[in-house]
Amino acid sequence: MAVRRIKRRSSRRFGAPRSQNGKRPHDGELRGRARLGKRTKRLTKRLGAADVAVIDHEDIDRVSGEDLVATGVGCVVNVARSTSGRYPNQGPLILTHAGVCLVDVPGADLFDRLDDGDEIVVRGGQVLRDGEVIAEGEQQTVEIVERDREWNDGAARTRFLQLLEAAGYEDPWGRAQRRRLSALLFT
Predict the structure, then answer these.
(1) What's the CA gap between 71 and 37, in Å, rounded?
(2) Rounded CA gap, 9 and 185, in Å?
């Protein structure tokens, strides 16, 4: 009989940003060893509080955000956009509310320029190695993520309504989704 693996996830979702591992939320520079992983799920198994996660994860989902927070990592550098606008995603909001420094450097070649374990510094939207800026992007703050989330929710609603319209009134899936939407809006 196989034993189920239990994984802890952050129970805190929203609210004021809190400190990470007893430290103040980031406001200057963060130093750590780069831990590279194109698969966030696999990377979280080897991350520690002294590491900087370098990921390639467009539209960070809730589960990935919670897993990254649970590792105690202080900084996440994403070579893709954490929120693209295709659908609403809570991962960036979970990370920023937990006090994790999230920096988006879309298109940066960090996987080619860094080796796993390299000592790097993240200062604002810059990633430095040996004092040299190797990538520049945008540090995601709670305010930026919440603003983008509102925009994404509007885009997601519009796309959802387009899908319902395209499915047609008689489509079983469309009817079921309209029923769920009505229950959410009017109860």
Answers:
(1) 14
(2) 30
